[in-house]
Amino acid sequence: MAETLTTPQKKSAEIPREFIYEEIDGVPLYYRGYREAIAQNLSVENIMGSGELQSRITAAILKFLYRNLEDSLYEVVTGEAGLHLKKKTNLSADIAIYDKKILRKRKPQNKYFDIPPLVNIEVDTKAELSDYPAGHDYPHIKTQKLLDFGVQQVIWFFTPSRKVMIAYPDQPWLTTNWDQPVQLLENYTFSLAALLQQEGIQLD
After folding, report:
1. Rounded distance, CA 30 to CA 57, Å?
2. Which residues on adjacent β-strands are paired with residue 23?
3. Which of 78, 103, 171, 176 would be 180's cystine partner, CB 3.0–4.6 Å?
């Protein structure tokens, strides 16, 4: 039988642990669509994938990173890489950029990363926010947790509004449009709108 957790809002409702997407200060966030999946007796694999738009945006960003980042300096990880920030706080990263020399000193383990990446990039979220006490403030809470963990830059791309939020430690956060350039790791700049245009991805 699967281990279960209870949400603060619905203490009587037992939810299989595998439906947890992230955990923040002991509060679980579940994959969007988990209620329907449970009702239809579906596995978590049926709901944990990204949509077409989010997947193609992520692919376009990854292509830029693989083509431009200095391979001897940086390692790019993706696929919802798990980040263990502290006890009862575990997040996922759509794209994380690590200092390669730090990773080379470590033997890879079959568990979440317990060191911060240099950069964390997110494209929307797979979390069901209606259950989370802070609701739609979740991106800001996750961003601050990542910065406190030691991430040097957090970038969010939001598809409904076509906005990008850029956050650094101890600096004002910036929200701008997809067509504006994003500075990355001091030496790299890209515009999401330009990347999508290069890939022939039409949004209108």
Report:
1. 23
2. 28, 90
3. 176
